[in-house]
Design a protein that fits this description.
alpha+beta, Outer membrane efflux proteins (OEP), four-stranded antiparallel beta sheet, elongated
Length: about 475
């Protein structure tokens, strides 16, 4: 018996060495990448991009989010799940050993009742020989899934920090805009006083007074709109930080920052290793290939080995005196399954093809995001310079037209037009500065990197083991 089992094992080993299913390694570049990006900075690229802004408030806000954001914690939970699945899959590569115990009492009734006691203890071992790398392919796929979930965790972290940065400076811009509108309203009120005095002196008509009052009410309406926008952004920021909306301890930005030097963008090929979403897509592709190999291997026979050792007796003292052992080899192969296994092969192949195209699409979008962020920042800087020139000209125009209006040489309509242009350019310049910061944050998001995340723990309930008596 043992000799035959050894022969079967030798045959299985030969099959394992000569006929296992192989997976062709994928090239990391699905497309022909450009040689370089359209722009290139000089500063060292840092994944923790917010540190380069030298904004302590933003740094504290992001530190809070990295420990309290619920979406980030959920992504970490998905990573832990994937790790557990990988360990479960890997467990199939090792033998399984089970223990068992049996106590049986048998009663026989003839002329009088007679009972027999039988006690049994045993060990049972089983092991599937991975002839075609079916189990190994499944385990490799699970390990690749784990790496992909880790990359997904980094993607969530990058997305969250970018959203916080964007909202942070939107709030800063709104606060500065509120101050600007209040200053504009004060200026408009002073002009209203001048016009009112001229109206009382009979130098201007009542229409000039009404139009100036409308301009002041326009400022009041702008303040209401800004207040609503600020409220909505503060609620979004609180949620991103993992805090209850309306929390009075929410950090408050002070001002718009001046951008640090442009970071080094590197080569397009560097994105394949640096961006976590690209890495996740590539790992998912490799996992799909492993599942194709598993499906192909599932079409071939499986060899299982089992061993059993048990001892028993009528009394406890007899248990270790009697031993029974057995060895078995079981070879099972599919003969007819209605095309089930072949259909699974075709499904996994189509899934791998889908993963390949998704990977290529992710690479294309990533390169496009970097190029877009570079161009937008470059053009936005030119726009800001243009706005500064126009604002200087508008300020001079307001001063000259105002002087001529007080001298009676210019009508009020020209004054109103100049005021609206000047105040509109003030707001436009402020918003353009915020948009420039947003484009830089977008550039960092598109370049990717690995963020150092704090330790995270599972939020599990308390589980009690044992038997408790409960009264109904």
């Amino acid at each position: 018996m043992a000799r035959r089992l050894i022969q079967i094992n030798i045959i299985a080993l030969v099959c394992l060495l000569s006929s296992c299913v192989q997976v062709t390694k994928r090239a990391p570049e699905p497309l022909q990448l450009p040689d370089q990006f359209s722009g290139q900075g000089q500063a060292i690229l840092q994944p923790d991009w917010w540190l380069t802004f030298n904004d302590m408030g933003l740094t504290r806000a992001i530190d809070t989010a990295l420990t309290g954001n619920l979406n980030l914690l959920a992504a970490h939970d998905r990573l832990v799940q994937a790790e557990a699945v990988a360990r479960k899959s890997g467990a199939a590569l090792y033998p399984e050993l089970d223990g068992r115990g049996l106590a049986r009492e048998t009663w026989t009734t003839r002329e009088e009742t007679d009972s027999t006691t039988n006690l049994t203890l045993g060990l049972a071992a089983s092991y599937e020989v991975d002839l075609w790398r079916r189990l190994r392919s499944r385990t490799e796929a699970a390990l690749l899934d784990t790496e992909a979930r880790e990359a997904d965790l980094q993607t969530v972290a990058i997305t969250i920090t970018s959203e916080i940065g964007s909202i942070w400076y939107q709030i800063a811009e709104i606060r500065k805009e509120q101050e600007l509108v209040i200053e504009q309203r004060l200026l408009n009120e002073k002009i209203l006083e001048i016009i009112t005095a001229q109206f009382k002196a009979g130098q201007v008509g009542v229409a000039d007074v009404m139009q100036q009052k409308q301009l002041i009410e326009r400022n009041n309406g702008e303040l209401i709109i800004l207040k609503v926008r600020l409220y909505n952004l503060e609620q979004r920021l609180a949620i991103l930080l993992g805090m209850m909306p309306g929390n009075s301890s929410l950090p408050v930005p002070e001002d718009l920052v001046e951008l640090p030097p442009l970071p080094q963008t590197g080569l397009p090929g560097d994105l394949l290793a640096r961006r976590p979403d690209i890495r996740s897509a590539y790992l998912s592709l490799l996992a799909s290939d492993q599942r194709v190999a598993e499906a192909v291997a599932n079409k071939f026979p499986t060899l299982s080995l089992s061993a059993d050792v048990s001892t028993g007796g009528g009394q406890a003292s007899d248990i270790f005196n009697n031993w029974i052992s057995s060895l078995a080899a079981n070879l099972v192969g599919p003969i007819f399954d209605g095309g089930f296994r072949q259909a699974e092969v075709e499904r996994t192949q189509a899934r791998a093809s889908e993963s390949f195209h998704q990977y290529g699409q992710t690479v294309l979008e990533a390169i496009g995001e970097v190029e877009t962020a570079l161009i937008l920042e470059q053009e936005q800087k030119q726009l800001i310079e243009n706005l500064k020139i126009r604002l200087d000209l508008a300020q001079v125009t307001v001063e000259r037209v105002g002087d001529r209006y007080r001298q009676g040489a210019q009508d009020y309509q020209r004054v109103l037009t100049a005021l609206l242009s000047f105040q509109g350019l003030q707001t436009e310049l402020l918003r353009a500065r915020q948009q420039l910061i947003d484009y830089r944050i977008g550039l960092h998001r598109s370049l990717g990197g690995r963020i150092d995340l704090p330790e995270m723990e599972l939020a599990v309930g308390e589980v009690t083991y044992g038997i408790s008596n409960q009264e109904n």
